[in-house]
Amino acid sequence: MNGIARYAPGTARVLLGLIFFVLGLNGFLRFLPMPPPPAAAMAFFGALLQTGYMFPLIKGTEVIAGALLLSNRFVTLALAVLAPIVVNIVAFHAFLAPSGGGPAYLALVLELYLAWSYRDAYRPMLAARPPLAGAPRADAAGPPAAWRGSHEHSTAE
Asked: Which end of the chain offers a freer environment for a tag, N or C, measured as fewer CB atoms within 10 Å?
């Protein structure tokens, strides 16, 4: 594996983690100046704020998922949780605030790259009919051990 391919997933993970950790914190602490959004975008933000819970929930999720990516813990879970947030951010910039879409598209590219990099971890989640935990497998020979012996000791003598 060459140098770029070796370090690309880790670099993408840290970069996406920084984006969500910093911008998630900014939702609470407002330490980064933001340009005034267009009217439609402002109405959308206003609706999120008026719920009383949605904006803090989204920003809190971004902070936690960003921290997970930065710490290299539960990365696939963090990516799965961030996926709908990334889709919404991209849609927000595509439809309501097109001028500031650069970071949104960067987050989308990083998310897709990392999802592809960790694709083996998502295979069971994407199975059409995943097996239940503890259920007998179709390739197992005979009935499960729990079923064997339940009628071996009959009281009829």
From this structure: C
